[in-house]
């Protein structure tokens, strides 16, 4: 039976095309980060903070889950009004906002400047670019051509990786970036809007109108699970929840009591290099909650390296969430509630 094409009529913002191009965006971001001028020196840096909200916060989570265990200094992702107390002159502080106008991030930028931290601004423009230029702060300026900040995940994460590489704080990551971009381009052929049915449309159809619960194995899949949750929130305009192994076995499974799975759909994100204990744990967990009636599907990351694994999961979550929204007659791009909230807070300021 021929599988139906994805209903594209409601994607005037081009969110699907942006998701399909995430590998190219990663390449561009990495190049711009590597080539950024006047970056702060890395000598004596004892900590890294990456500040960003929402779609500009996930790139920090990506970098922390990719490199956190490989660097000699801790990476902390900060999502809020306050710059962490430990940030001082020996902290490299990345201030990330695709629009450049996010209140919390601008606040952390000002605080980092006051404390004399080594600041790098990552943005497509706005107030952040303007202020960084005025202050002589290192700036990675990214193209502003994408429909929404969350679609810029490739630009933003690539830029962070590029700056870390350029300063010597992070590893040389060019081959990993190239591989991830190739994997994403191939997956876009299979899952993009021009494909005649695809794993992404199939999964969106299985989920239907249900509320997704996304579990990831620890590491990059935990970050991907968070991203799937936020993509379902924004692209499909519905609640979604995420958790990761092994932590979820210490709390969440208790909540999946008999019959409580109705109305939910569980997606489990897996990676080839997950801890060997995860596979038996997933099976045991599913057995433990079998009477909840929670339907589930497992998704394997693509690629032979962690960055490709992560980007492939993130891209798939983008496609699945858009198709779920489109199937419900929703345009994935507009985020009316988020915009209205920002406008309201500007009035109150
Ligand atoms: O996905 C979105 O549009 C939001 O989560 C934004 O990323 C968030 O509101 C922050 O805006 P910006 O990314 O421009 O800093």
Structural description of this entry:
The protein has a five-stranded parallel sheet with strand order 2-1-3-4-5, with helices on both faces. The chain has a four-stranded parallel sheet with strand order 7-6-8-9, with helices on one face. The protein contains 13 helices and nine strands. Mean pLDDT is 95; it is low at 1-6. It has two domains: 35-172, Glucose-6-phosphate isomerase like protein, domain 1 (Rossmann fold); 197-327, Rossmann fold (3-Layer(aba) Sandwich), CATH 3.40.50. The radius of gyration is 20 Å and the shape is globular. It is α/β, with parallel strands linked by helices. The protein binds 5-phosphoarabinonic acid. 5-phosphoarabinonic acid is lined by residues 53-56, 97-99, 102, 105, 148-150, 234, 335, 338.
Key terms for this structure?
globular; 46% helix; binds 5-phosphoarabinonic acid; Rossmann fold; five-stranded parallel beta sheet; alpha/beta; four-stranded parallel beta sheet; disordered N terminus; 13 helices; 349 residues; single chain
């Amino acid at each position: 039976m021929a599988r139906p094409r994805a209903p594209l009529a409601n994607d005037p913002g081009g969110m699907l095309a942006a998701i399909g191009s995430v590998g190219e965006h990663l390449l561009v971001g990495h190049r711009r980060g590597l080539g950024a001028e006047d970056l702060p020196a890395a000598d004596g840096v004892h900590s890294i903070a990456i500040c960003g909200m929402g779609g500009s916060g996930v790139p920090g989570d990506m970098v922390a889950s990719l490199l956190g265990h490989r660097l000699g200094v801790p990476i902390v992702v900060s999502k809020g009004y306050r710059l962490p107390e430990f940030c001082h002159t020996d902290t490299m502080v990345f201030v990330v906002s695709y629009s450049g106008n996010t209140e919390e991030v601008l606040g952390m930028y000002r605080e980092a400047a006051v404390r004399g931290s080594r600041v790098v601004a990552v943005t497509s423009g706005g107030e952040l670019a303007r202020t960084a230029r005025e202050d002589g702060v290192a700036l990675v300026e990214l193209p502003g051509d994408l429909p929404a900040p969350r679609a810029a995940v490739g630009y933003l994460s690539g830029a962070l990786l590029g700056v870390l590489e350029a300063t010597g704080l992070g590893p040389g990551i060019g081959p990993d970036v190239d591989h991830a971009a190739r994997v994403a381009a191939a997956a876009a052929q299979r899952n993009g809007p021009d494909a005649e049915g695809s794993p992404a449309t199939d999964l969106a159809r299985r989920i239907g109108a249900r509320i997704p619960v996304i579990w990831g194995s620890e590491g990059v899949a935990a970050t991907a699970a968070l991203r799937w949750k936020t993509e379902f929130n924004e692209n499909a305009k519905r609640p979604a929840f995420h958790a990761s192994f092994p932590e979820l076995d210490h709390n969440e499974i208790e909540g999946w009591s008999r019959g409580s799975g109705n109305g939910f759909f569980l997606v489990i994100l897996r990676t080839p290099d997950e801890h060997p204990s995860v596979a038996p744990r997933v099976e045991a967990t599913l057995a433990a909650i079998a009477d909840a009636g929670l339907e589930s599907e497992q998704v394997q990351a693509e690629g032979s390296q962690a960055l490709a694994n992560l980007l492939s999961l993130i891209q798939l979550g983008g496609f699945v969430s858009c198709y779920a929204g489109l199937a419900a007659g929703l345009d994935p791009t507009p985020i009316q509630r988020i915009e209205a909230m920002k406008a309201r807070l500007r009035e109150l300021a």
